[in-house]
Amino acid sequence: VKLILNAHECVPSLVHGDLWSGNQAYTKEGDPVIFDPAVYYGDREVDIAMTYLFGSNSASFYSTYNTCWPLSPGHELRKTVYNLYHILNHYVLFGGGYLTQAQVMMNTILKAPL
């Protein structure tokens, strides 16, 4: 994990910190809103990674984001690293299939070419 993250030049950004689909909605007028933040400064990729957990955003969201501020090479593997924390946390809280999901993620990280 240290090698994966050290290879990435992270520009600290103010992140939402809990940006899964349950913390996103739209007003009656159709404007997007986010709520229930756990704000901190970190890698902007943590928020993008979390949007893939428990449902994901639209393809246009990701393409627009990448047009405005492209993700750097290696972001797919970092997404796994960043989301592993949340899956392990859910395993501790809820048990069940989260253990298998965490094991798959850890194997992905361990087998990644560096």
Topology:
Layout: H1 2-6, E1 13-15, E2 24-26, E3 32-34, E4 40-42, H2 45-50, H3 59-68, H4 75-94, H5 98-110
Structure description:
With 114 residues, this protein is mostly helical. The protein is 47% helix and 11% strand. The strands form 2 sheets. Strands 1-4 form a two-stranded antiparallel sheet. Strand 2 and strand 3 form a beta hairpin. Helix 4 runs antiparallel to helix 5. The longest helix has 20 residues. It starts with a helix and ends with a helix. The model has no long low-confidence stretch (mean pLDDT 95).
Average predicted confidence as pLDDT: 95
Structural class: mainly alpha
Q: Spans with pLDDT under 50 lasting ≥5 residues?
A: none
First-to-last CA distance: 10 Å
Largest sheet: 2 strands, antiparallel
- In spatial order, strands of the major sheet run 1-4
- Percentage of residues in helical conformation: 40-55%
| Rg | 15 Å
Order of helices and strands: HEEEEHHHH
Strand count: 4
Shape designation:
globular
Q: What is the helix tally? A: 5
Strand content: 5-15%
Give the gist of this structure:
With 114 residues, this protein is mainly α. Helix content is 47%, strand content 11%.
What tags apply to this protein structure?
two-stranded antiparallel ribbon; 5 helices; globular; mainly alpha
